[in-house]
Write a structure and sequence with these properties.
This protein has one domain. Helix content is 0%, strand content 38%. The radius of gyration is 15 Å and the shape is globular. The relative contact order is 0.24.
C-alpha cells in the first residue's frame, strides 16, 4: 500500500513457518507472489505466536488480537541487484525452511529463473542474520 504521511499503513501477517514446524523441514508458500525490489533496503518484520497453533503455511492474517502475535526483531537488508537494474521489481515466490540449527531460512525465488535471495532468522534465540547472495 502506498505510504501516506502521518498514517501508518496496515500490516498483514503471512504464516511462513507454522507452530510445530520441525527442524530440517521446508515449505513453499502456495499461490502468493510478491514483488521484490532489488538493490534497495528492505525491512523484514517477523512475528511469533504461542497461541495461534492452527495456522498453516500461507495463512494470511488481516487482523489479530495484541496477545496473539508478538513482534520479534526485524531484519533490514539490501538485496543485491547482480545483473539487474537497482529498483527493478522482480516477481518472486517464497520458500521457508527450518534448519537443523533452528534457523528459519526464507528464500525469495525469482519466477522464470534460478535467482534466489535468502534471509535467515534464528527462531530459537530471536537473533537475525542475512545472507543476501544470489544463486544460493
Amino acid at each position: 500500500m502506498p505510504t501516506v504521511p502521518g498514517l501508518e499503513p496496515p500490516v498483514q501477517a503471512l504464516c511462513v513457518a507454522p507452530f510445530g514446524m520441525e527442524e530440517g523441514t521446508e515449505a513453499e508458500l502456495p499461490a502468493q507472489e510478491f514483488g521484490l525490489v532489488v538493490g534497495e533496503p528492505v525491512h523484514f518484520r517477523f512475528f511469533g505466536s504461542s497461541v495461534r497453533r492452527q495456522d498453516q503455511v500461507g495463512t494470511l492474517l488481516e487482523y489479530w488480537q495484541p496477545e496473539e502475535l508478538q513482534e520479534l526483531e526485524e531484519i533490514e537488508a539490501s538485496l543485491p541487484p547482480e545483473g539487474r537494474t537497482p529498483g527493478e521489481v522482480v516477481p518472486v515466490k517464497l520458500h521457508a525452511r527450518v534448519t537443523e540449527a533452528g534457523t528459519l531460512e526464507l528464500e525469495a525465488i525469482s519466477r522464470g529463473s534460478s535467482e534466489r535471495w535468502k534471509v535467515e532468522f534464528d527462531v530459537r534465540g530471536g537473533g537475525v542474520g542475512a545472507d543476501q547472495g544470489m544463486g544460493l
